Amino acid sequence: MLFSRKDKGEKKPGIFERMRKALAATKEQFVGRIEGILLGKTAIDEKLFEELEGVLLGADLGVKTTTQIISSIRDQQKRGAIETAEEVRTSIRSQLIAILQSRQPAEPEAEPPQEVWMIVGVNGTGKTTTVGKLAAKWSLEGKRVLVCAADTFRPAAIEQLAIWAERSGSELVKSRLGADPSAVLHDALAAAEARKCDLVLVDTAGRLHTRSNLMAELEKMRRVAGRKIPGAPHEVFLILDATTGQNGLQQAKEFLKAAGVTGLIVTKLDGTAKGGVLFSIIQELKIPVRYIGIGESLEDLIEFSPESFVDSLFNPEKQA
How far is CA 122 from CA 98, 206, 214, 252, in A? Predict the structure, then answer.
């Protein structure tokens, strides 16, 4: 993660409450159904396991994650560690937190003079908007940010980034429509060195994960970045739309091969019942979630905390 993680785990006023409201649909279809099944249960039997399995699969946790959770509860029951419905609920919550915590990013040994983040993903996931929000976020933190408009196929993306850059006071490097994205990236990195920027955010063209020629372009951009700045790109963030559910898992697999994805930014978690896909992706691909989007405003792009995410589903009464 760029810069100090001294704020990691801290919950600023209002964040938990906003997250709880944004995840209301996921809670209703996931934790709400679990609690409905467990309500009044006096026996932990096979019927309960089958019902829980259906809920977990329906919440997009995926087969592997669902099987692991149910198997663990069975094992704990056999050992006498679980005897009540409340203990089943506690076990599910603990396992979900453990899954999310298992792939948290490590602290870097040293911060490079300029850090380069590439933002990749398919069209319509909120990629360009997320780049703008990241630029604004880190500019507010006092860092000098440069945005590289490498999505040269979409005029609207360049215009959108120009607005974000102006509002946040970030630098912007762009080129003509249809220009070589790698050439634009090269110019942006040269500008970042000259202007002593702390962070370069690279907005790449939205592409389908099935288009091999476009995926190869990402590989070229990574090589260009590495030749210009040692270790670059330091992060490759894949933007995933939470509403796609398990389809997002296949996207992540393909981007991981071509782009060397280091972390996920999951958008549009507000208003969807498919937030459980986060657990599935982390379990399957071992990629950490780094940011989540829970709304349209700048404040609704937040650094991901496993504990806060799970607590917002299980503990609606908790206050920010």
Answer: 29, 5, 11, 10
Backbone angles phi, psi at 262, to 5 degrees: -105, -15
Bridge partners of residue 267, in order along the sequence: 241
Predicted TM-score (pTM) of the model is 0.86
Angle between helices 62-78 and 277-285 (to 10 degrees): 90
Q: Measured in whole angstroms, how far is the alpha carbon of residue 106 from the centre of its chain? A: 16
111 backbone dihedrals φ, ψ, rounded to 5° = -90, 130
- The Cα angle at residue 116 between residues 222 and 139, in degrees rounded to 5: 150
Residue type, 109: E
Q: Which residues of 67-85 are buried (b: 16+ CB within 10 A; e: fewer)?
A: ebbbebbeebbeeeebeeb
The answer to whether the beta carbons of residues 88 and 38 sit under 8 Å apart is: yes
Residue at 206: amino acid letter: G
Residue 152: which residues within 8 A CB-CB, separation 6 or more?
A: 158, 175, 176, 177, 178, 179, 180, 181, 184, 205
- Render each residue's pLDDT in the chain as its tens digit; 320 residues: 444 433 444 444 477 788 888 888 888 888 999 999 999 888 899 999 999 999 999 888 889 899 999 999 999 999 999 999 999 999 999 999 999 988 776 665 666 678 999 999 888 888 999 999 999 999 999 999 999 999 988 888 899 999 999 989 999 999 988 899 999 999 999 999 999 999 999 999 876 545 667 778 888 999 999 999 989 999 999 998 888 777 767 777 778 777 888 999 999 888 777 778 888 888 877 888 999 998 888 888 999 999 999 999 987 554 43
DSSP code for 64: H
Q: Would you state the structure tokens that stand for residue 179, as one six-digit string?
A: 């220009």
Residues 6+ apart with CB under 8 A from 197: 114, 144, 145, 146, 171, 191
Edge-to-edge strands, sheet with 171-173: 171-173, 145-149, 199-203, 115-120, 235-241, 263-267, 289-293, 301-303
